[in-house]
Specification:
Helix content of chain A: 55-70%
Distance between the termini of chain A: 50 Å
Number of domains of chain B: 5
Shape of chain A: rod-shaped
Helix content of chain B: 40-55%
Oligomer: heterodimer
Number of strands of chain A: 0
Largest sheet of chain B: 7 strands, mixed
Number of helices of chain B: 28
Number of strands of chain B: 26
Distance between the termini of chain B: 36 Å
């Protein structure tokens, strides 16, 4: 049972990393237009000046 | 976005980069954010075509298409209007409409939805971890191990539940403060009673802790609340929208006949005002001097401009088309017809808020029922055992088991699935309860001009004219901005005709255009002007020299999908009525063509609204479909209303649903979907009720272990959501 002392903090930490990642994606607008993003990757236009 | 603005500012104001102080002097006008609806967009190529076309349009800084929402967001200079952009997009072959400003103003609602999503994510994270720990307890952990699991669960759940449940606590508190009970009161009570007793049990090394149930409850309820927010658009008042159409200033003629600009409020009956061509009439009045044509389409729904000469009555809001008019004021400010319509709309809007949705009805039964049940259980157990700890535990278990999760998800899940389906078909739902109200409809009222028809006339039988006559007609028509002349110009250009060389071209306001061709006078205009008999249908006349005038008839094109929509609604057993402000002949002919038997023609705006109210008084639930100012009052008065994308702002604001494209066909489908959605909502309530009836006896009997609570809650919520998804 001693292993729980390590495993529980580790599982909580990993979960928190996932949660943080989700917040980051939400803030960056990754869920604003999922269908558009899926299609944009097929776009043949070459962007000379990508936005930073 | 900020960066693009900085890049463009030197171009806007070249002096600014040289002398920074000039920037504050030459105040840079604020950029406009415009939104277009693009119903026809569907692929990667569409995105780049539209974005490139928009980016090349003058004044546009940035354009971004959102394929999921089928919209384009454009950052442009203040001089760019949505109309210009619509033309740009149409030129590259896609249908575009200016988006309802009500939808545009949803940034606040968006933020609220994002906030809920964040709380949902935290609740989900906490729930999964606690459930994981609970598995150990369920599978028989004892003694110190169980206590440790409970303590860790408490450490996760306490902060999470304080943060994630905030929307419920706020709602519950504001309801209690006003002495009412809403769905959030039992939710808050259940959450905190469960957390409180669980904490007490944990401290005393008790067996049952409901931390997992409390956080799962919050999670499912937040999911329902989030879906609810996504289908809700911010409400705006159509009455305010109409008030904005009133012209604030007018040109009053002074004693010596020179015009001066005054506020409309300062005008009194008997004043004379000048209305320039292209301007909106600011007051109700009678024409004293000048002849012109006025566009009454917004006020009355008449498809054609009417002649205006001395003696003609005009009302505020009508547009003067061809010549200047001097109007004697008979009513100004609050007495004008336009203002009366705005008042009608305001009254109708205030009456509409009384609708009680299925969810509200369920909450009204549910909230007191649950409190009484759990209080009775607690009192019963206390009298039986005199054990306060046990009876409080039972009360918490009852509150959790009668979990409103399924109830909280039953409606939003169905509404989201149904509005997603309708959105794909080309219809935007603006109001959360609109779907339920649409399902109750038994009578449909259509407006004609601009709704069932496109509201744009086009000439027919041009082949009957000789080729040089067509050239003459084209030259004459190009001079005028009259809608019929513009339609004729377009049609003749499409045929490949070239304008004939004419001299002495002159527009005679209110009558038509005249000129000279090969030495003989030519005229294009009203029948009465050339002494011809005015026909029953819409037509303009062409006269060359002494020849008898020739009629060029026009028809109004039927909107695509109009016939299908009417036929579909009739097939669903609904009573369909056509109410139009247009002349009786035109309305009857159109009704026969499209197959509507019940017709009311020459209806004034207040008569339209009155008819809709009368129908409601007879017990009918009316769906109103209209587009103009004259329909706005009726749209607000109806049980539920739909307007096409091309409708006036105020009409779209007044409507519960807006069509995204030109096609009317989604209406019949929307009705069927709404009926199905209502059936699903009822099924979901039944499922939730059955779950409660089965589970409550367990809770009251004291058999509801945390495992039973978790199972009952999750399975009922998932069943309800899956049932809703069948609608997609």
């Amino acid at each position: 049972m001693d292993v729980l002392v390590i495993l529980i903090p580790v599982s909580l930490f990993l979960g928190a990393v996932g949660l943080g990642g989700f917040f980051w994606l939400l803030k960056r607008g990754q869920f604003d237009d999922p269908e558009g993003d899926a299609n944009r990757i097929l776009n043949g236009d070459y962007d000379d000046k990508p936005k930073r | 976005m900020a960066s693009t603005f900085e890049h463009s500012s030197p171009a806007v104001c070249p002096a600014c980069s040289v002398a920074p102080a000039a920037e504050s002097l030459a105040e840079v006008p604020k950029d406009a954010r415009l939104m277009l609806s693009l119903p026809g967009i569907h692929c990667a190529a569409c995105i780049s075509t539209v974005e490139n076309a928009l980016a090349k349009a003058p004044g546009v800084h940035e354009a971004r298409v959102n394929l999921t929402l089928k919209r384009a967001l454009v950052e442009a200079g203040p001089e760019v209007t949505a109309e210009d952009l619509v033309k740009v997009v149409e030129a590259v072959g896609y249908e575009a409409h200016e988006l309802d400003p009500g939808v545009l103003a949803t940034t606040a609602a968006d933020r609220a939805a994002k906030d809920l999503l964040m709380r949902l994510a935290v609740a989900g994270f906490a729930m999964m971890n606690v459930m994981l720990l609970s598995v150990a307890v369920w599978s028989g952990a004892e003694g110190v191990t169980r206590d440790m699991m409970h303590w860790i669960s408490a450490a996760i759940v306490l902060p999470a539940i304080v943060f994630t449940g905030k929307p419920f606590y706020i709602n519950a508190w504001s309801a209690l403060r006003h002495g009412r009970l809403n769905m959030d009161v039992p939710i808050t009570l259940a959450i905190w009673l469960a957390v409180g007793t669980s904490l007490y049990e944990t401290i005393h090394s008790g067996e049952h802790a409901y931390f997992d149930a409390a956080i799962a409850l919050t999670f499912f309820l937040l999911a329902g609340r989030y879906l609810d927010y996504r289908t809700r658009a911010s409400a705006r008042s159509a009455a305010q929208e109409l008030a904005a159409m009133e012209v604030p200033r007018a040109l009053r003629l002074t004693g010596d006949g020179s015009p001066e600009s005054v506020g409309v409020a300062d005008l009194v009956v008997g004043d004379r005002v000048l209305v320039r061509p292209g301007g909106r009439v600011p007051v109700d009045g009678t024409v004293l001097e000048g002849t012109s044509e006025i566009d009454r389409a917004l006020m009355t729904g008449e498809s054609l401009p009417a002649f205006a000469g001395p003696g003609t009555a005009v009302s505020a809001g009508e547009v003067n088309l061809t010549g200047p008019l001097t109007v004697e004021v008979t009513a100004a400010g609050e007495d004008t017809a336009l203002h009366r319509i705005a008042d009608l709309v305001a009254i109708a809007e205030s009456g509409r808020n009384n609708y009680t949705s299925l969810a509200d009805k369920a909450a009204k039964l549910y909230a007191p029922g649950v409190h009484i049940l759990s209080a009775l259980a607690a009192i019963g157990w206390y009298l039986h055992t005199y054990d306060l700890r046990l009876s409080l535990n039972i009360a918490a278990a009852v509150l959790i088991i009668t979990c409103p999760c399924a109830l909280g998800l039953a409606v939003p899940a169905v509404t989201t699935a149904a509005s997603g389906r309708l959105f794909r078909k080309g219809m935007l739902i603006k109001d959360g309860t609109a779907m339920e109200r649409l399902a109750e409809v038994d009578t449909v009222v259509f407006d004609k001009t601009g709704t069932l028809t496109m509201g744009a006339p086009h000439p027919v039988g041009l082949e009957d004219l000789a080729e040089d006559a067509q050239g003459v007609a084209l030259s004459l028509a190009t001079v005028s901005s009259h809608p019929l002349a513009e339609a004729l110009t377009g049609a003749l250009r499409d045929l490949g005709r070239l304008p004939a060389p004419l001299t002495d071209l002159r527009e005679v306001p209110g009558y038509g255009v005249e000129g000279r061709w090969n030495g003989q006078p030519v005229r294009l205009g009203r029948a009465s002007w050339m002494g011809a008999e005015a026909p029953a249908l819409t037509a303009t006349f062409l006269q060359i020299g002494d020849q008898p005038p020739q009629a060029i008839p026009f028809t109004d094109t039927m909107r695509p999908g109009a016939a299908e929509a009417v036929a579909g609604l009739m097939a669903s057993g609904l009573r369909v009525i056509l109410i139009s402000g247009d002349t009786k002949g035109a309305v009857d002919r159109f009704a026969a063509e499209i197959g509507i038997d019940e017709v009311m023609a020459e209806a004034l705006p207040d008569q339209k609204a009155a008819r809709v109210t009368d129908l409601a008084g007879e017990g009918a639930h009316v769906l109103m479909i209209g587009d103009g100012l004259n329909d706005t009052a009726a749209l607000s008065a109806a049980h539920v209303s739909i307007s096409p994308a091309s409708a006036l702002d105020a009409a779209r604001v007044a409507s519960d649903m807006v069509l995204l494209g030109n096609d009317l066909a989604p209406i019949a489908d929307a009705f069927k979907t709404a009926v199905k959605a209502r059936a699903r909502i009822r099924e979901n309530f039944t499922i939730a009720t059955v779950y409660n009836i089965v589970a409550v006896p367990f809770a009251i009997a004291g058999l509801a272990t945390p495992l039973v609570a978790a199972l009952a809650m999750s399975s009922s919520s998932i069943t309800v959501s899956l049932n809703a998804l069948r609608l997609r």
